[in-house]
Specification:
alpha+beta; Phage tail protein beta-alpha-beta fold; four-stranded antiparallel beta sheet; three-stranded mixed beta sheet; 9 strands; elongated
């Protein structure tokens, strides 16, 4: 799928990368790499010819080799890696797996393409895969958990002004994509929860709530009067750089940085 934000230029090489051309310097580059398997002229518009190009990943080429092999005392990831290795430098892949997999005494490939074999084994053991694209290359990444995916904290279609998109509208936009991989009955049970990073106002409210608890605890246990300084609040908010962590980052700063600084003062007052 092409990024709707980026104009595309395609190299005529067998491995075609698409990168932005004519975009402003601030535009984020999106590279799409693959094997050029089709090209079609679709007309002319505004004095320019338009073509539709079809790119496919190297993984699709494995469907052209059918073999008969027996794999002995190997796990599923090892079998898939061995099949990939048989295709040389073309097969760029990476394993981002967290689970341990059983060793199979025998795994048989009988008049089955390498593509079908790899898909069958990965599907049977819950291994998903996706492609990471770069300029002039793309890599198949095997994953079996959320840690196998790169985090994506960008707002939904920022160029289209959909940062505060309603859940109902988001469901409508996602439905065609989901129908391509999920039955309608399953989609009906899916609950869409849009990711929205905490605002500065929310972060400030959480920080003040955490600090207020420390003030109350100091008053009850140490009979100490503490005051929440605005500079302290601003400093804690400024250290919350990771949008994925949300309010959990605040708790970490308070418990691992602020409280250790306060503790010696309480101990000195008790002596």
């Amino acid at each position: 799928m092409l990024c709707p934000r980026c104009p595309v230029s395609t190299s005529p090489r067998p491995s075609a990368s698409t990168v932005p051309s004519g975009s402003p310097p601030s535009a984020t580059a999106c590279a799409f790499d693959g094997l050029l398997t089709g090209a079609e002229w679709v007309g002319a518009e505004d004095g320019a010819y338009r073509y539709q190009l079809t790119l496919r990943p190297w993984f699709e080429l494995l469907g052209h080799r059918i073999d008969r092999l027996i794999f002995h005392e190997m796990t599923t990831p090892d079998i898939v890696a061995k099949v990939f290795a048989g295709h040389g430098r073309l097969a760029r892949f990476e394993k981002r797996l967290t689970r341990s997999y059983p060793t199979h005494e025998y795994t048989v490939q009988s008049e089955e393409s390498d593509l079908d074999l790899c898909r069958r084994l990965m599907e049977a053991h819950g291994i998903a895969y996706y492609f990471r694209h770069g300029r002039g290359e793309h890599t198949l990444v095997m994953a079996d958990g959320i840690s196998g995916y790169l985090p994506n904290t960008e707002p939904c279609c920022p160029a289209a002004g959909l940062r505060d998109i309603a859940v109902k509208e988001l469901d409508r936009l996602l439905r065609p994509e989901l129908l391509g991989v999920c039955p309608p009955a399953l989609i009906g049970r899916v609950v869409t929860v849009p990711y929205r990073p905490l605002s500065a106002r929310m972060l400030e409210a959480i920080v003040r709530l955490q600090l207020a608890r420390i003030v109350d605890r100091a008053k009850e246990s140490q009979r100490a009067a503490l005051r929440i300084d605005d500079d302290v609040v601003a400093e804690i908010i400024g250290r919350c750089h990771d949008p994925q962590s949300g309010g959990r980052m605040i708790d970490r700063i308070v418990t691992q940085t602020l409280l250790p600084e306060l503790s010696p003062n309480f101990l000195d007052a008790m002596v």
